[in-house]
């Protein structure tokens, strides 16, 4: 599996996501394309296109993600604005930096 970052082209992102979804479908989920299509309410051609890295409507991808039990992962892609950033949570837990005062007589 290739890493997706800011330098990855759109076509490469679609291809990688399709590859990952195919691996999940055939691995732990053990579904055929026909079974996934039926359960997701999409056509077999749509599943094939997603797995091939072709562009499809986002609502169809959502149906497939829901069927594979992956829909909740979209929350990490676009968290709600009222949810704090993980780095902010870490900073709050550690507290604000405090000055260390020297004892009398130290320089």
Question: What report would you give on this structure?
Answer:
- With 107 residues, the chain is an all-alpha fold.
- 53% of the residues lie in helices and 0% in strands.
- Helix 2 crosses helix 3.
- The mean pLDDT is 88.
Give the helix/strand layout.
Layout: H1 10-26, H2 33-40, H3 44-52, H4 58-67, H5 74-77, H6 86-94
Helix pairs in contact: 1-3, 2-3, 2-4
Key attributes of the depicted protein:
107 residues; mainly alpha; 434 Repressor (Amino-terminal Domain); 53% helix
Structural class by secondary-structure content: mainly alpha
Q: Report the helical percentage.
A: 40-55%
- Enumerate how many helices there are, as a single number: 6
Q: Major β-sheet, in short?
A: none
First-last Cα distance: 56 Å
Report the CATH superfamily of the domain at 1-72: lambda repressor-like DNA-binding domains
CATH architecture of the domain at 1-72: Orthogonal Bundle
Q: CATH class of the domain at 1-72, please? A: Mainly Alpha
Mean pLDDT: 88
Low-confidence stretches: none
**Cα radius of gyration in angstroms:** 22 Å
- The percentage of residues in β strands lies in under 5%
Condensed summary:
The chain is an all-alpha fold. The chain has helices at residues 10-26, 33-40, 44-52, 58-67, 74-77, 86-94. It is 53% helix and 0% strand.
